[in-house]
Amino acid sequence: MSNHAEAPVGAFEPPYYVAVFTTVRTEDQDGYRETNARMEELVRAIPGYLGMDHAQTPGGLGITVGYFRDAEALAQWRSNAEHRAAQQRGRAEWYQSYTLHVAKVERSHGFVRA
User: Which residues form the ABM domain (predicted)?
Assistant: First the structure.
């Protein structure tokens, strides 16, 4: 999943939630791109979804941060049947390792150079 903008997702009025998904992928990425595009489509349809940032290091570490207005929106994403199937396939094929951190944001601010 990726944010195709040239800037990070902006700050929101707290509280809101973030899901930080950090990965190292395997060499077998067959079907990953198509599944990733479908996951982006699905998550954007969830009421309370605020946006996503993604970064990839040259060494292969990927970090995706999803932003959700409330715990209910995050729970809807977590329980989506297609998302659950993609998670299973990811563990079986696409990820060497991953971590998921979920947090409630209590403070948020941003900066944009004029």
Answer: 15-88
CA 49 → CA 27, 66, 94, distances in Å?
30, 8, 25
Q: Is residue 8 in a domain?
A: no
Q: State the average pLDDT over residues 12-41.
A: 96
Give first-to-last CA distance, the chain, whole Å: 29
Of 57, 58, 76, nearest in space to 66 by CA = 76
Residue 4 clears pLDDT 80, i.e. is over it: no
CATH number, position 50: 3.30.70.100
Is 46 a member of any domain? Answer: yes
3-state secondary structure of 72: helix
Q: What pLDDT, on a 0 to 100 scale, did the predictor assign at position 2?
A: 42
Task: State the chain's mean pLDDT as an integer.
Answer: 94
Three-state DSSP state, 77: helix
Domain that holds residue 87: 28-105
Stated pTM of the model: 0.90
